[in-house]
Each structure stands twice: as C-alpha cells, then as structure tokens.
Amino acid sequence: MLDRAPPETRDQSAEATRPVAFRGAGFTSGGSRYAGWIALALVIAIWQLAGSAGWVNPLFLPAPSAIAVAITKLATSGALWQHLSWSIMRIGTGWIIGTAAGVIVGFAIGLSTMARGVGITFISALFPIPKIALLPLLILWLGIGEEPKIATIALGVFFSTAISVYSGVDAVPRNLIRMAQSFNVPFHAIVRRVIWPGALPSILAGFRITASVALLLVVSAEMIGAQYGIGAFVLQAGNLMQTDQLLAGVVILSLFGLAVGKLINLLETRLLHWR
Amino acid sequence: MDLIADHISHRFGALDVLDDVSFTVRAGEVVAIVGPSGCGKSTLLSILGGLLRPSRGAAELRGAPPAGSLNPLTFVFQDFALLPWNTVEENVAFPLLHTSLSAGERRAVIDDALRRTGLTDFRAAYPKQLSGGMRQRVGIARALAVRPAILLMDEPLSALDSQTRELLMEDFVGLLADGTMGAVYVTHNLEEAVRLADRVVVLSRRPGRIREIVTIPMTRAERGTADARGPMAALQGELWSLIRKEAIDAEREVQHA
Predict the structure, then answer these.
(1) What pTM, to 2 d.p., does this model score?
(2) Is B158 helix (H, G, I), strand (E, B) or coil?
(3) How many CB pairs under 8 A join A and B?
(4) pLDDT of B8-33, one tens digit each?
C-alpha cells in the first residue's frame, strides 16, 4: 500500500528568502524577424543622406534614389527586360542541363560502388577548376554564340549538383534502407521512396548553391562576350562611367538572386514540410 | 514455420563476433537473446533476418509460412526506422505497396494494423509529431501489416523511457498471446526477456557463443499475476548470474578499446 503524503505548504520560517538568480540568458539561435530589414533600411538611408548632402561624389557612389531612377528608366525603356530575358534564358538552360546531368551522375555515384570509384576521382580533379576559365576553350569548341555561355553555366552547376546529390544519398540513414530491404521492397522503389526523399534536403541545399554559381557564371560569361544580358549591361555601364546604371544592374542581380532564394525556400517548405 | 540458426559464425574483418551459434525458433515461440554488450546479439538477428550474410553457417526456414503472410520474417527496429517524410498511415502502407494486394485489401490491412496498435486516430500524423512510444507502435503496426510468422525485434524498447517500455511490453504480450506469431527478441534487459520469452538464449561475451538456453517455466498469462513475481525475479537472478562476470569483462574490454 502506498503511503501518501499530504500536499506541501510553504514553510513559514522567519528567515528571509531570495530568488534564484537567472543564468540562462543568451546563446540562443533565434533572431528578430525585422532586424535585418531595419538595418538594411538604415544603411540605405545613411547612403541616401550622404549622396544628397554631397558628402560622396555621385560618380563613385550614386545615391539610392539615382539608382532607383536608373532602374525605372531601364524598365520603362524595355532595356531591362531585354537584358534580363537573355540572362534568364542562359541561366535557365545552363542550370537545367547542369542539374539534370548532376542529379544523374550524383545518384550513380551514390548508388554504385563502381561509379563512385570513377566519378569521385573525376569530380575531385575537375571541381576546383574555375569554370569561367574554360569559356575561351568552350568558344573554340562550340563557336561564338549562346552555346559556350550555357555550357559554362552547365559545367559550374553540374559539379556542385553531383556533389550535393551523392552527399545526400550517402546521408540517407542506412537503417531506413535496411528496413526497406527487410520488407523485400524492390531496388527502384527503395530509390524512389527512401533514397530520393532522404537525399532531397541535401539536393535542395545544393540548388541554393548552384543558383548562385549560375548567376556568377552568367554575369562573368556575359562580360566576356555578349551584347545583351545583365553582365553585358553592367560592363557597358562601367565602360561609360555610368555608375548609376552599373549599380542598377547590380541591384537587379541582387533582386534576381533574392527571388531565386525565395523560390528555393518555397520548394523547401513544400517538399520538406516533414522536417 | 521454424527459424533455424545453423552453426552461425561471423567476423567483421579481424574481429570474431559470433562463434558457432545454433538454435531453433519453433512456430509461435518467443525466443529472447541476451548477453553482454558487444556479444553479437544484433548481428545474429541481422543474419537470421537475411540482412547480413554469415561468415559460416546459415539461417534457415523450415515449413511453410502461415497463409497470407507477406513477409514471414519481419523486423521491429530499435530506432523505429520510420520514413520521416511519410505519415503514420503511409509508413504502415510502405511494405504493402509492392505486394499483390488490391487497394481495398491494402486499406483493410492498414486499418486493422492501426487499430491493433491504437494508432487509428494518428494515421495522418508525421513521426516527428509522435512520442517515442507511439513511433515504435508505428513500427509494430508496419510489421503486423505484412502478417509475419516471426517478428525479429532488435531491442525494440531500449530507446524508450521506462513507463513507455512498460506499456509497450503489455502490447507485446497481448500481440503474442495467441501463439500465431513467433518472435526473436534481442534485449539486454533481463526483465523483458523473462516477461516475454518462452526460452532465453544466453550468449557469452564476444565472440558470442551459446552459453545456456533457459526455458521459462510459466505461460505468459501466468507471468502477469502477482504470484509470478517471486519466480520471475528468481529467473532474472539466475540469468544475471550467467551474464554478470562476462558483462563486467565486456565493459572493461570496451573501456580499454
């Protein structure tokens, strides 16, 4: 039989009490949702103030309002869409080709010991090469046109994708694969229902990196040899000392990068809701 | 259907893990495997379930599986091995997707497995939303869905707190009560072994050899009564006396490794 004690009441001792000091503050990973935006707005405001007050030469650093005017003019004249559409076409095509090849090769390396032996050697050897350095060679091989630019982007995207895919496949807990095998689930179904969703977080993280790589390469490639494209526009503006136009191009690139990042966030929210 | 461990030995590289282990799990029988840490209990279970090829010897089946069994040897894993991107229902359905069951039959099997494990109201939940005990129930429901002849349970309660262990142990006793399903139950917990098993295979420290096979002289129903507490405690003591010295040696070996 249980010997139940009555509920305890506070000890009425005459001795004074003091609260236990709280020592658990800080070292948390959370951050304010608006702090970043406020800081950005503050920097822009100071920048604008410096420009309006004449503290900085507008040739070297045009004020945000001048950049906004330049963007508006670009948009209304139609030049913005012309440059942007060329860049998007190059990025889109190069990214899709590089991603498709990277996913196939990454899965092959992740799933086959023979492909791993061969593939990792090649990837390790070729990944560190700055892909933009291959553009002249690609122009020689593919001619002066869109192909070498797209191929440069595809190459840059391919290696990062392949690495993120096989790393993702490697990161799928082996116990889940053994579980599926213990139920006699066929190989293709294990790949589709266990390995693919298990590797998806790493694959999407890879997409985030390859989107930046593609943006970097498209600008570089367009600066080397293109009439249209944001990279070409920025270079032309720089050559003509039109720094407001130049920074307008940079802002557009930044906004484009942000939009792609948001798209990947959306994909992660939809596809990785189980995390 | 019987499951036979026939002179099984195994080594990982230069490390001998199992040495000449032989025993038979008869149809409907629950056999617990106990032994010191690192004696090869889980390795033996993987070999019995066909997930690991033994260095010598073999795991064999004798007799036909029960009618309708979709996976006669079915694992229940220590870490649950649930697909985190699938709901409870999808996890239970997972092993059925590539069987010959029609959609209607599949639904009936899933409903039955969820009902038997008390998960009907949680079918749309994701594993991360469940407690450890509920996750293991999903693992059990998934195993039940394929109508196994023998459950291969690898320390299924070791990742759970003691209260949840007690609740799930009651579930196991209920599921195994009618004798239609056998089990090999790997555990380091002697109380669980004595509560659940018909026989307990005691392995020596690595390389695991059969030290003793102890028969539990009570039905599982009897073990739930107050009168059984004394004899069960005595059985646990007997098992512990078989393992104690080797457990100490094994622990020191691990610390020196």
Answers:
(1) 0.84
(2) coil
(3) 50
(4) 999 999 899 999 999 999 999 999 99
